[in-house]
Design goal:
Layout (H helix, E strand, L loop, with lengths): L1 H9 L2 H4 L7 H12 L11 E8 L5 E5 L2 E4 L8 E6 L4 E5 L7 E4 L3 E2 L6 E2 L16
Antiparallel strand pairs: 1-2, 1-7, 2-3, 4-5, 5-6, 7-8
């Protein structure tokens, strides 16, 4: 068994599989791409308000894309600039947007189109040649 692995590793076909590790230039390019504005609120990942809890002390937590975010935090890059706990409404400021967006708990914002979708609405299907994923 070990001999077979050694022979396979030394064969010319092993080069076809590619490298397991990136060169310094490839890593730099990947880091640059990661640091670009790709993510929540930038035309990439949709934003969903999953929940809002306001404690009797007045402090609150908003769940954005299933991650908790407390008052005055912007860990997800999204600033919470207003809350109406009685109506379950949250006003968020997206990193690359000039105007704030008001959403209700359960709604999802498509950051590419700016359209807000209710939680019970079906997610638009991607065109994939007529086959389901």
């Amino acid at each position: 068994m070990t001999v077979g692995l050694l022979l396979a590793a030394s064969s010319p076909r092993a080069d076809v599989a590619g490298r397991f590790f990136y060169t310094p230039q490839e890593r730099a390019a990947l880091d640059a791409q990661r640091n670009k504005s790709i993510g929540p609120g930038t035309g990439g990942e949709p934003i969903t308000i999953n929940g809002l809890v306001t404690r009797s002390s007045g402090k609150s937590t908003v769940w954005i894309n299933s991650a908790p975010q407390n008052d005055h935090e912007t860990t997800s890059g999204i600033a919470i600039i207003g809350k109406q706990p009685a109506g379950g409404r949250v006003t968020v400021q997206l990193p690359n947007s000039a105007k704030p967006t008001g959403m209700k708990v359960g709604q999802t914002l498509d950051t590419g189109s700016g359209q807000i979708r209710e939680g019970y609405e079906a997610v638009p299907r991607q065109e994939n040649g007529g086959t389901d994923p």
